[in-house]
Design goal:
The protein is mainly beta. The chain has no helices and eleven strands.
Amino acid sequence: QVQLVESGGGLVQAGGSLRLSCAAAGRSSFYYPVGWFRQAPGKEREFVAGITASGSGTEYANSVKGRFTISRDNAKKMVHLQMNSLKPEDTAVYYCAAGSYTPRENYYHYWGQGTQVTVSS
């Protein structure tokens, strides 16, 4: 069992930055591929970014390419999502999930509870 805990969400003005973190709790190691997803009110959950277990490979949604960067520190069992040039349309609850690094949700086995990101215009 993998417990994932997100942090770092909040309220930011358009053009600003936030750094989300995903911590794997209760484990001595964390060598899973990880993805970030988001869900805005009234919309389906969508893939944002993913990273392989080693960190050597990443994938991004077109809507965030060039603005968001996913990274990880396996020694600290952490995965981060650096979000720059934020837009109001980035407002959503952001979730990290383990098991894959691709957009296919059914490949992910473990999900965090989510952290709210609100971007004001």
